[in-house]
């Protein structure tokens, strides 16, 4: 690539051209009027640092044979294959651009070849009485991944936006209810009626607690996880959570009094609140039970939470821990387990589950002590 062309001189005069070329995410090759490779951009150079040569193949994935009459004067070692050479020749002959030609870029790894899908554009252009061909190559595989991620992120944000506005809107209902029953309480002397109003008010407060927890979950899903760690007594933590949840089913706790975990109390509270709340919601009225067992090892704790409920629906098993995965609940947000996973990850722990339809669900959590 030592051939100094008019074009190369131009690049030296105006470094802006070089800067623009180097800033592009595509691989760019410029060929001169003899079909010689005269310039590549930074993207190509970066690729060449990791791979000795650049070999493309056509749409079918096969390496392309050079057409016999390709007249290329230099035998550039960088581009060994004929996929590009044939294309350059085609453009030079027809003076027409080629857009979106499919092919593959081959990357040689120690024991296999990886093929990356590419799209190629080739454009003829004239400069100072010479003809050039500029070839740009896009790695569509990565673009696709990027676009898919972008769509997922946008989806995530719209789910969050919608849920927050629904929750905030719905906060009014239990609040109005509470205010109403308070007024009624003031006006009645009947013991029975008072009991009924107390119960209704308790239900309203429970609903508010759940809604606030939903908002906490959303915050956990969006924010970076910064942990405020202390030594936490695990049994006390579970008793707190169960107390807050008003569980109507039997909860069997098998936790030694003196097991501690070093973690963020509020966040772990959030974790067990979500799992136990889901377990409670999965049980039919007045039937079934929930079990919590904590086993202590040298450096870790294993926490097993199981219920005898309806089981996790097949429809969401694969994406259970992703934001917005909810199924079969009128007020579900799908933020609970997403937030659980994020918190467990932040504690360098692990979480998995087993679930059988109408038999029950078990969550297994590992946490470093
Ligand atoms: N213990 C369980 N038993 C049955 N289904 C469960 C259990 N835990 C979670 N699920 C299912 O997983 C879904 C996601 O749970 P979660 O992330 O807490 O969101 P939400 O409870 O708001 O729907 C629930 O909608 C439910 O269908
Ligand atoms: Mg939930």
TrEMBL record:
InterPro entries per UniProt: HATPase_C_sf (IPR036890), HATPase_dom (IPR003594), His_kinase_dom (IPR005467), HisK_dim/P_dom (IPR003661), HisK_dim/P_sf (IPR036097), PAS (IPR000014), PAS-like_dom_sf (IPR035965), Sig_transdc_His_kin-like_C (IPR004358)
Cross-referenced PANTHER family: C4-DICARBOXYLATE TRANSPORT SENSOR PROTEIN DCTB, SENSOR HISTIDINE KINASE
Broad class of enzyme this protein falls into: transferase
Single GO molecular function: phosphorelay sensor kinase activity
Ranges of residues in domain Histidine kinase: 166-369
Pfam family of the protein (one): HisKA
SUPFAM superfamilies in alphabetical order: ATPase domain of HSP90 chaperone/DNA topoisomerase II/histidine kinase, Homodimeric domain of signal transducing histidine kinase, PYP-like sensor domain (PAS domain)
Superkingdom of the organism of origin: Bacteria
The EC number(s) this enzyme carries: 2.7.13.3
Alphabetical UniProt keywords: ATP-binding, Kinase, Nucleotide-binding, Phosphoprotein, Transferase, Two-component regulatory system
PROSITE patterns: HIS_KIN (PS50109)
Record field: catalytic activity: ATP + protein L-histidine = ADP + protein N-phospho-L-histidine
Name this protein carries in UniProt: histidine kinase
Native organism: Hypnocyclicus thermotrophus
